[in-house]
Amino acid sequence: MTALTLSTAAAPGLRADAIVIGVAKGAGGPSVAPGAEAVDKAYDGRLAAVLETLGASGAEGEVTKLPAPSGFKAPVVVAVGLGAEPEKDAGFDPEALRRAAGAAARALAGAKKAAFALPLAEAADAGVVAEGLLLGAYSFDAYKASAKEAKGAKAKANGNGKAPLAEAALLGGKPRDKAYKAAIERAAAVAEELNRARDLVNTPPNDLDPEAFAAVAQAAAKEHGIKVQVLDEKALTKGGYGGILGVGAGSASGPRLVKLSYTSPKATKSLAFVGKGITYDSGGISLKPAGHNETMKCDMAGAAAVFAAVVSAARLGLEVNVTGWLALAENMPSGSATRPGDVLRMYSGKTVEVLNTDAEGRLVLADALWAASQEKPDAIIDVATLTGAMMLALGSRTYGIMANDDAFRSVVHEAAEESGEPAWPMPLPEHLRKGMDSPTADIANMGERMGGGLVAGLFLREFVGEGITWAHLDIAGPAFNEGGPFGYTPKGGTGTAVRTLVRVAELAAAGELG
């Protein structure tokens, strides 16, 4: 990952490959953002005019490169758009800073060092800039021959074949200030774990089956002092986890349920995070058609997010107990696969009639939710790439939040927005529950077609213990970016929901969950 430092050095004398500055979109054209005063002075105060001549407007995500002025040790100035100029005495939106830093870091692939002279009015600004550039510099190159040929240099996930930015210095940062140091240390820990989640989502399913995923979790748990328990097929059978076993029945790779437990001696609250971990989803007997299964390695993004969030909580030493449940299975068709019409007896004791084997995520989550409920945490949040219906409702960049408590849903929504993860509260209409009535079992795994994302949420609610506050995050849209990179978001796995979960854990540690 990109090395990160705080620096009080002046931009002209700093040895680097580039100086990154911010440009805002003002009423009369682009304006140079705070932090770049020394650079603007070197252009005789005409930097904004030069940028406008080059076509820059200050629009969010816009990147413009120009030669550095005479006397600078860095040869290039990179001007990155911050969007609309803020009102007088108001700071820049944190997400605009994150995205700008990410876009600049991606544009500087191949550089050894860059100095970021973006607006840093306070320690929190340093944190969001650090987070943005660390996420924007992400690459996934494990399967690129060019990476090996480049003597260890990494081939970029954005396809430019260059190594990621090696080092970044935040100018205007205060290296001896505890708040600034804490902000970038938090950013580094969360970004590293989020990038690990991206790696897992991007790993081909022939190399990441449930057993392999469990092994990754075990190794990380050992490194960070997290207690881990892995239930294999034998243990799942003995325990009666019919949902997980039913989904994994058709695969040669057996399912797993991984429990990660981070505990703090100062904790007064406990949270449970539950993640859907379908390492490949063919749809099972209800086979997906061509064109709908090529990216289904990403169907374990929920489990990856939960895994990363628990490890982040441990690395940050949060004063809250956090348990992660990774419900891992591969959904494949075969002679032993669950059939439409089969009835599964779940871990809770309820029976489920399987009407569609491609509605499998809710089955593994149901068992994990009930297992999490037995420990009676203060709140449970599950994360899943659950329904195409949620993508139709909210698009590819926003995830849906459902809950059995409106106040908690609002807390999670605010945490998501604060973290830079677009989300939207969704209802759980009671009239949709009747559509899952089954003449054979306690409930069916399918209901009305319209409102399918809400139906899935209602199904999951059936497996949350009585009196336990619960929220469901359907991240089907933003979990995997099939388009081009933008801001700090790469093509492929995005790590969606990691930052939301970490923020909720921080709120719980601070006694602010309500």
What integer value in Å does the Rg equal? 24 Å
Strand order of the largest sheet: 8-9-11-10-14-18-15-16
Shape: elongated
- Spans of at least 5 consecutive residues whose pLDDT stays below 50 are 151-159
Characterize the biggest β-sheet: 8 strands, mixed
The first-to-last residue Cα distance is 36 Å
The percentage of residues in β strands lies in 15-25%
Q: Could you give the count of β-strands?
A: 20
Helical proportion, percent range: 25-40%
Number of discrete helical segments: 15
Which features characterize this protein?
single chain, 514 residues, alpha/beta, 8-stranded mixed beta sheet, 15 helices, 21% strand, elongated
Structural description of this entry:
The chain is an alpha/beta fold. It is 33% helix and 21% strand. It contains 15 helices and 20 strands. It has helices at 37-42, 47-53, 94-107, 123-136, 145-149, 178-202, 210-224, 233-239, 242-248, 301-316, 361-373, 388-394, 406-419, 452-461, 498-509; strands at residues 3-7, 18-26, 29-32, 63-67, 76-84, 113-117, 167-171, 227-231, 256-262, 270-281, 321-331, 343-345, 351-353, 379-384, 399-403, 423-425, 443-444, 469-474, 480-481, 492-493. The chain has an eight-stranded mixed β-sheet with strand order 8-9-11-10-14-18-15-16, sandwiched between helices. Strands 1, 2, 3, 4, 5, 6 and 7 form a seven-stranded mixed β-sheet that branches. A three-stranded mixed β-sheet has the order 12-13-17. α3 (94-107) packs parallel to α4 (123-136), α4 runs parallel beside α6 (178-202) and α13 crosses α15 (498-509). The chain is elongated and about 80 Å long. Mean pLDDT is 95; it is low at 151-159.
